[in-house]
Write a structure and sequence with these properties.
The chain is an alpha/beta fold. Among the domains are: 99 residues; 64 residues, no CATH class. The chain has eight helices and 31 strands. It has a 19-stranded mixed beta sheet. A five-stranded parallel beta sheet has the order 4-5-6-7-8, with no helix packed on it. Strands 1-3-2 form a three-stranded antiparallel beta sheet, with no helix packed on it. Helix 6 links the parallel strand 26 and strand 27. 37% of the residues are buried.
Amino acid sequence: MEIFGSVLLLVPCFPPVSATFPQPSRSLEAFATVGGGPIQARKQGFLGLDGRKELELIGVECFNNLVMRSFFHDLRKDKDGHIYYCKMHDLVHDLAQFITDKECFLIEMKSNNDGDQLHNNKKFRYLSLVSGEEAMNSIPTLSELCNLQTLKLDNCEYLSKLPQGIGKLINLRHLEIENTVCLNCLPQEIRRLTSLRTLNRFFASEGCKIGELKNLNLLQGSLEITRLKRVENKSESYEAGLKNKQDVRSLVLEFSDDSLGGVKEVERMEDVLQGLEPHPNLEKLSIYEYPGFKLPSWMSDNSVLSNLQSLSLSCCWKLRQLPPTLWKLPFLEIIEIDLLPNWEEWTMGVEEDGVIISTTILPCLRNLVISSCPKLKTLPALGKLASLESIKIEGLQGLTHWDEWELGVDGKEIKIMPCLRILKLYKCPNLSVVLATGVLVSLEQLSVHSSRKIKYIGELCEGGGSDGNDLFPELESLEFGGMENLEECETRRTIIKHRQIMPCLRSLVLWHCPMLVAPPHHLFLLPHISPPLLRKLVIGDSPFLSWMQQPPLPPSSYVLLPFLEELELLYNAGSLSRSLLSPDNSQMWFLNLKSLILTGSPHTSLPQGIGQLTMLQRLTIRSWNRMTYMSEEIQHMAMLRELRILCCEILGPRCQEGAADWGKISYIPSIIVGGIFVEHQ
């Protein structure tokens, strides 16, 4: 009986779910995600009242059951495991559409006359409108559709106002207005829609004040409130009753700070934000263009943000500090801070002489982004943030004392940020030494850009690997760019005792390092247990870089790069711009290279030895105005399948069909010269 009942429950659910799939693709994309799962039938009233569960939750269960019974296929899931895309068979789709002919509609609006289709049937429960016409800036009245539960207006880019009489749709549960870029106000009667579960955006205005949200306490999922600069005071913002909206999980507060400047205006906005205290169930908070000097007191109350998982602050021009209690939030996973030009100080509030004295700081933090905060003078010690997986730090010109990374842990600590996989350091001009990253046993990607004071890579701590031997044991991608004073990629400690360094490295990028004289030799020289696994190598604008020639070693000490598949040389790449051979011209470094890109070389011909790239399949030559002819060596590349010559003033015309160098390249199946494509059978 239990199984039989489950099937009976699915019978009324199946048609609306299926019928709303758009034709002709029979595919569903980006279903609304109220309650966490992608399904539309839950919004269409075909599910009977349970008394114990919201219809949306019942709908999720029904959809999942239909998936289990193979009504849908080609499923795609997001990072949280929710299905956001699926397909169905044509026959199933057509049957469902036939059954729900008078109850589910997808209408493409090309003019206001198309709205006449809406008045012929009052049974509509689900209505999705699609408009791509500029003239279609409004929708006829829908007040007669008293049974309507879902109105989907997403991507109606020219829609500037909502339908008349929308306040009469007392059964409306979902009003979806994502990507309606011309819509900038809501009707005042929105306050009557007390059954609403979904309202993506709310625009504070004189015609529809923020207090109209007061009775919409069943809202779920995400809520974005914009134009908060139009709110008069704390009392008005408090009227929105955000504290009472226990099912709102994501809250975006946008002030659109384009006209505020006076002290009184700033204080008014501080009061407005104070009145927007959310319910403690909130999981994601984003604040944009906030003009205040300080954040509200409720952001220092950990009981209010006790369930917060993500915090984003952007374009808060006057903000000077963050709450020190922020570090005590137990479930916070993501912190993103961008464009806070007056933010000067940030501490964890639990430090003593730079060392964290508590072990329970942000136990769940996975992702930290700090960018464009030029006045920030100090960073909190990060060494004990054990869950951190990704760090991006960019545009911190004010860190005058950040000569080395202060990890803030006792010297006896062995594991520092054991889960860190991605580390990006951009535009930190006062950083002079790259930290001892060798102890980051899980690090997979290291990028350091535009830090012109760095002259060498910092000391690699001994015992970096889990077995006390390997350093950077999991590193797959290493990138240094815009390092004007970087002279060497070696470390200050001897590396002979270590078994391997970066044994998993797949990608190495060195660009605009004009003082760099040698790559990291320990990646390429014997003794090695196995050859380097490097797949991609990019070198650019590093004219003094001498590949494998310093220190001078006998040929028996060289290790080739047998797995390298992609090589890109930009502008002056040092010795590789001249030759791809070993120093004694006896060996080719890149035996299995498949793709080679050469951009803006200062020389007049292709690198020596290019004809020995017998496995090369794709060759791109671009912006190379000094190259006057095509080398004869290109005729020796038997596997070459594609040649691109782009923005080459002299070489380009010579390589066009029938021109001087055409005979050297005519054997290649696919040739692109400028914008002209030639393909041979």
